[in-house]
Design goal:
By secondary structure, this protein is α+β, with helices and mostly antiparallel strands. It has nine helices and ten strands. The chain is about 30% helix and about 20% strand.
Length: about 290
Amino acid sequence: MPELPEVEALKDFLTENLIGHEVVRVLPVAISVLKTYDPPVGAFEGSEVTAVRRHGKFLDIEGDNGLHVVTHLARAGWLQWKDRLPDGPARPGKGPLALRVALETGAGFDLTEAGTQKKLAVYIVHDPQDVPGVARLGPDPLAADFDENRFAALLKDERRRIKGALRDQSLIAGVGNAYSDEILHAAKMSPFKLAASLTAEETERLYAALRTTLTEAVERSRGLAAGRLKAEKKSGLRVHGRTGEPCPVCGDTIREVSFSDSSLQYCPTCQTGGKPLADRRMSRLLK
């Protein structure tokens, strides 16, 4: 799933390639992709792009007619830029193409989604706050006013495990499964630790890991073409998606805890005092 660093890089890429250009076509190809009907999707056509913004994991393209195309790429969605879009209409079917946006230059982009769970979402709205997912977002962790005191205040009454708290978009916007693993590894903290139990020193360490991990990921992605961002994300991850590999810090084997629809990765030596965490799904299978 694209998270804050990748969406920030996509925002920068689209800012460079869209602003000042006219959108001549917005074509939904998959029935599931469009989540609004008023204003109609065609209302954005003919407008000039004036700004591209990021709200958590949402991309927001603003036109000079006051409308916004807001996109959430979900778990398996992606944006594919084309200097020249294919001639002829896009045809609905079983392929990954969900929506196409064409400029007056002939360039544009496709939104695609792999797999069978079609959760990629596009909204045409007058205000990004009209999108429920945007309206409920918590503060952006890279915002200038997101300091350690604000972070501590968010966590002090949280009775959830810190992994779940970091992923809650209404608490902190933009962090998902992959970067929460990376942040907790950098902070040397168990993903199962209760958020409200953090000491002042642990909160300081976690805040520093949050800001540093995301900032460094944004810098690695900055300036890359849209098509290279996935590979950059994967190459920059130290523990997430690296089950069975050696930890780059201590050399211990990276372990995994599996859930019904996702998994987390961690280093026992760095994060849990050398003790493996119980993998409940695997435990049930072994009974």
